[in-house]
Amino acid sequence: MMLAVSNSHELDALKLRYQAFVNQGLSLDMTRGKPCAEQLDLSDALLHNLDHNEVVLPPDYRNYSPPELLTGLPELKKLFADVFAVEPQQIIIGGNSSLNLMYDIIIKALVHKLPGQTKSWSERGKIKFLCPTPGYDRHFAICESFGIEMINIPLTGHGPDMNQVEKLVAEDSSIKGMWCVPKYSNPTGECYSDETTRRLAQMPTAASDFRIFWDNAYALHHLDMNQQIDILNILTECEIAGTPDRAFVFASTSKITYAGAGVAVIAANKANHDWLIKHLKVQTIGYDKINQLHHLKLLPNKNTFMSHMAKHAAILKPKFNTVDAVLTAELGANGKFANWEKPKGGYFISFNSQPNLAKKIVKMAQDAGVKLTSAGATFPYGKDPYDCNIRIAPSLPGVSDLKKATEVLAVVTKIATLEQM
What we know:
This protein is an alpha/beta fold. It is built from 14 helices and 12 strands. It has helices at residues 2-23, 37-41, 52-56, 74-84, 98-111, 137-145, 162-171, 194-202, 234-241, 270-283, 289-298, 302-331, 358-367, 399-420, and strands at residues 28-30, 91-93, 128-133, 149-154, 175-180, 211-215, 247-252, 264-267, 338-340, 349-353, 370-372, 389-392. The strands form 3 sheets. It has a 7-stranded mixed beta sheet, with helices on both faces. It has a 3-stranded antiparallel beta sheet with strand order 9-10-12, covered by helices on one side. Helix 12 packs across helix 14 (399-420) and helix 13 (358-367) packs across helix 14. The longest helix has 30 residues, at 302-331.
């Protein structure tokens, strides 16, 4: 009885706090991992860092690209090779979106035979993908748009549950691919262990045309440049394991320079690289070389690149610290109300309420003027089996707004939890 009375008093006080937030008419958005204006300002030299002479020097980048530049400017390919620890000849530089490259590779695999194959994916019948969860909603949306069946794979803190992955791919030849965000994963922030990466490269698969989509979107987004985490190179591990065609690696500067006008990159072994070039020659005469020149001028070498990333870290780290400090002060560290990750990099914080409360929490927060990523968005088909995961995106709001938004999240979490109790 004493506990019930105590919870009742706490709930009444929390509802008063909640109503006060509602009365403030807040309009705060934490739905997406967008860079804030201060981060975008770091790259404003892109707007004016080229002169006429640099552009018109042969081969005159205003004109159609010569065939040898289809894969990108050699100097920029070398830069990305240095930064991502791959070989320049493995790289193709695309447009502004790595997501577009992923979408494009899946279309090509559905329509065209992958290297060494006699049939395309679509000619083989039903297609399935493994999806580590919680994960990136846009990966899942690509699969859903093509009718590719998605299979949830739980994350362990060191990458996907490899016992489950190995069993499934060994038994089912309709499993053609797997999404991986191996470093500072979206949204959990975890990094794949060496063991996980090696097992992904080595595992036997029933499908000879199985591919790993290795989305290295956050590989350079450390929150503390003195505590950088390194992961193994999946292309190298696949070569060692005798599965050289297994992986495509993706990255971009979308959260490094301009989110809407960056440069996307794909890296692959020679067979996959040549296969992709064969079809790209039909698809395009070349991607935007002037934008590539702008980026090369802004970030001419690895040292400059990493100094640029340190400036991003200096902006982002206080925001991540703010979220953690507010949640700890409001919810405690015992897991009664929720638990959350404390990532060392990336753009997100994965927040888990008690089961069956995430949708309610997101709705209550929205009613108080705080927009959060939809509950369930981090799972295929938008269906979180426990209705508990919420992706927090701290990057866009200022620190004061972020503090208030996190307070709202904490208050509605406590209300929802106590009401359920």
